[in-house]
Amino acid sequence: MAKKVGILFGMEDTFPWAFIDKVNELGKGEVVAEAVMIDKLEQGADYGYAVIIDRISQDVPFYRAYLKNAALNGTYVINNPFWWSADEKFFNNALMSKLGIPLPKTVLLPSNDRPTDTTETSFRNLKFPHDWDYIFNYVGFPAYMKPHDGGGWKSVYRVENAEDMWEKLGETGQLVMMLQEEIVFQDYYRVYCLGKKHVHIMPYEPRNPHHLRYATTHQTEGKELEKLLKIIHDYTIKMNEALGYDFNTVEFAVKDGIPYAIDFCNPAPDADRNSVGEENFAWIVEHAAQFAIEKAKEYVAGKPNISWGTFVTDNITKK
Prior knowledge:
Elements: E1 3-8, H1 15-26, E2 31-35, E3 49-54, H2 61-72, E4 76-78, H3 81-86, H4 89-99, E5 106-109, H5 132-139, E6 143-147, E7 157-159, H6 162-169, E8 177-181, E9 187-194, E10 198-203, H7 222-243, E11 247-255, E12 258-263, H8 273-276, H9 278-298, H10 310-318
Parallel strand pairs: 1-2, 1-3, 3-4
Antiparallel strand pairs: 5-8, 6-7, 6-8, 9-10, 9-11, 11-12
Helix pairs in contact: 1-9, 4-7
C-alpha cells in the first residue's frame, strides 16, 4: 500500500502543486502526494498521512491543532507543530548568541499598549522607565524595529533616532517589538535549509520590490566568496540543527566579510516561482519532494516520529 504525503497550504499556488507532482513522479507509486483535505477532526483519530508539509498553520489555528493530532499518530510533520507553537524570533536570537553565531545587537521592548484584560498592576515586575540610555547606546541608530514573533516583513520599521522610534512604537499596539542594530551590508543572502542537511544559498536584496529581491548577485568575489559561502553553509546547518526545523530559511547580512544572522525563524518560507525565480524554485521543489519521500519511507503507523532540535534534545538528555 502506498504511503501518503500531504501538503497543507493557503493562497500560494505554484509550490504546492509542483511539490505534489514531483513527489508523485519520484515516489514511483510507493509514495503518493495530495493536498490535505479535512472534513472532520476527531480527537486521536489517524487520517493516514505518513508526512505532511505545513505551509499555513501559522495563520489558521484549526490547522495547527490538526497537525498536532496527526503528529500524535506518527505523521512526520514538516515543521514540528509543537516547537513552532513555542518558538519566536527573540528566543531564536538568544539561542544563537549561545551558539556563537554573529548577530545584530538586539533588545526586547514592552508592548506600547497594554495587553487586553490587564491593568497597571499587571506590570508591577516591569521597571518604569526602562534604562533607555543603555538600550539606545547598546543598539545605536539607525536601527530596525520588528515584532518578536512576526514574519512576512509585517510591522517592520527603520528608525532614525529615539524620537522616531517612539513615534513608530505608537503604531504597534499590543505587539511586542525587538529593537535591532542596523547592519550596513555589502552582501545579503537568503538560504533554504531542508532536512537540516540540504542548503541552497541565494543572493537576495531586501531593499528591492518583492518580485525583484532575488534579482541580484554576489558583491564578494573569488576566494573571499568561497570562504563566505562555506561559513554561511555551516552556520545554516548549525542553526537549524539547534532549532529542529526541516524547512526553513535563514537570512544573512554580510558586513566586512562577517555574515550576521538577521532572520532565521521562517518555517513556511517563500517558495513561489514568481518571486524566487525558476532556478531556486526548481531546487526547493526537488529537494522538498526528495525529503518528504525519505521521511514517508521511514514512517511506521502509530510510532511518534517528530523532529526536535538539539536545544530540546540536549537539555532532555542532561536531566
